[in-house]
């Protein structure tokens, strides 16, 4: 799971519940939309806090940045019914969030959130100015990660959240106990886990195991795309994301020194790459016809 480096919101940011046609969602909201608005969707076991370190750098670049707890995640809550967390339901939530923000939104999905963001764009690309897929791949997670995720899903079906949390900590390597994580962040990770709706974790965990390859369908959507990851990733290997970017004709960024959570692990470099991509999107939108498209921005960048 992602570990935010801090839980302190930057100056001017606020936490509240965003009202949408699909209900209210807990969000962190920072910045003014001088350059545009971004909607950040977290991954499996994640929350809006995973993006805290990105809020300030992106707001200073002129963006309004809204990070959300999805349905069943942390402070948003949701029903005790797996059907409520089907991917099409979560995609409709993202569309409603984008509409509540006024449309023209730069959509960012991290990990499982990347699959949900993709589903939202495939359902209706109109509310979005661009799509950034962060540390997420073309289909299900790597086979090497299946066993761990399957065990978690099976445990959630029969055990309470506290018992599962303790079991996961027992499986942590010894060095995890002294990895420099601040005590308040450790306590937050436990609190967040316990607040998640277990049916949401079961439904999205199963999706991670079974997601089909929808890259070709996404490539056909005329929307600027960006594939961003760390230099190491065990859920979706980096070469797999390289190939996905090629198939999409997408801009590709690899953030050196980061793994599965570049927004938390290397926020300055990640924010720089995201803002540069969004700036290109503005340039394309204002350029005359024939001035270039997403295919021309597919070269890999390394920070």
From TrEMBL:
Q: Which residues form a coiled coil?
A: none
What GO molecular-function term can you cite, just one?
Answer: hydrolase activity
Signal peptide range in chain numbering? none
On whether Hydrolase is a keyword of this UniProt record, the answer is yes
Enumerate the spans annotated as AB hydrolase-1 domain.
39-273
| A UniProt-annotated Pfam family | Abhydrolase_6
- Output this protein's name: Alpha/beta fold hydrolase
User: SUPFAM superfamilies, from UniProt?
Assistant: alpha/beta-Hydrolases
Which UniProt keywords are listed? Hydrolase
Q: Which InterPro entries match?
A: AB_hydrolase_1, AB_hydrolase_fold, AB_hydrolase_sf
Organism the protein comes from: Streptomyces desertarenae
